[in-house]
Predict the structure.
Amino acid sequence: MEQLWWDASLWIALALISSLISLRIGISVALVELIVGIIAGNTFRPQISEWINFLASFGAVILTFLAGAELESRTLKRFWKESLVLGIIGFFAPFALAWAAAQFLLGWDLRGAQIAGIAMSTTSVAVVYAVMVETGLNETPIGKLILAACFVDDLGTVIALGLLFTSFGPWFWIFVVLTAVALFLLPKFTPHYLKKVNAHSSEPEVKYIYLVLLVLAYLAVRGGSEGVLPAYLVGMVLADTFLGNRELIRRMRATTFALLTPFYFLKAGSLVDLKAVLTGFGVVVVFFLAKSLAKFFGLYPAGVFFRFTTKINLYTTLMMSTGLTFGTISALYGLTHEIINREQYSILVVVVILTAIIPTLIAQVFFEPKGREREVLFEGGERNV
Amino acid sequence: MFKKILLAYDGSEGSKLAFDKAAAIAKLTNAEFHILAVGRIPEYAETVSEVDEAKEQASNFYSKIMDEAIRKLGQRDLTATSHVDFGKPGDVILRIAEDLKVDLVVLGTNLHSALRRRFLGTTVDKVVDHAHCSVLVIRSGS
């Protein structure tokens, strides 16, 4: 029993250290937790027990739900054509190229190569949003369009992860039907429920969301799918409800960031084998290039088609080349389901970390739209908004 | 002389010195006066709400500091427009200076370790190197 308390103390100490570093250097705690996890995993190797696995998995589900709940449906409707095209290309191009590179260039097996494709297909709405706020672009049309496209891209990733490794047996179809029913009923029922319980101190709203997500995650896993798929979809259908209830999001975030996501990111980092990364550095470069080039050659022509100005087009392309949370979720899914081995996992996670940092830096330094460039979205200006 | 002045202000000792000098110049030149505070938000965030919450906390923190600064200016028969924005201070000061088309940016220095200066640079370095207009840097202790 005392071992449990010791392990818990150790993991929470790592989470606290990560928070303090994040506070000091101004970088998101998720990225710091990943890096602290990598250091811990390659030095004193903290024990990963069953309860840590549960907290980490639950953390991934809640994080995915919060990401889904951040959808701005108005923006998606306003720029539906551009965001759908950019989002779908942003998903498929790197998915296909990284898959092909893994299978035909690096000799990974089919399922392992598919995991590599999924992990490279992502973008990061939150990373992009932070950059948008920094540059003042979040309130501009281009900022909103890029965020909507990132959202569609991530949806592609979550659907691929939820469906690609499924056996499509009877339990899968039960999961599909019950999820569809839940997605239909939740936006109708939830506002009434939230009004009824009225922010009681026993947190019935948070428990209600947790219950919905846990039941659907159970059905997903029982059906051979992945718990993050229904979580993202539930987040999407409840996004408008949550938009008017920011306090609830704040309370959910407090629980999630204090007790759930640290276990997820620390665990994801601690499983990275640095020796494998060093010996497979060439593979890291291959995946980084596969993702970046696929995003560029997929998205840039689409931007030309929509007549984006050159600078806006390059900026959009780079922003959509970022990735963090869903990349690590995909890689960890592959490792825990023994689709990829520890070396392959280590390489994918390091590439994901690099894609969070490098495209963002290049976009900010060289291609950040300034002044009137921020308002002019299209060449010729006839569709300026 | 100067027609529009932007003061970067965070309530620190260095920025308080810059505040006094900027106010004196604004009074002398009858220039339009803007004060800017920059709140940090996490880079490479996990969720959008994480960024929004950091913005909200920074807004609450700096709005009090800005109100106090405006009150002090009022005692000197000066008025100013306050702005709170978010991101890396150097980048945001440059962006707002350009957007407002100011012709002078005033900012103070704060003590940083040599190591931090070497690797991260300072806000002052960035603004002096890249500003489109004149920059007045008030040294701590001057």
In short: Chain B touches chain A at residues 40-53, 55, 85-88, 91-92, 95, 98-99 (CB under 8 Å).
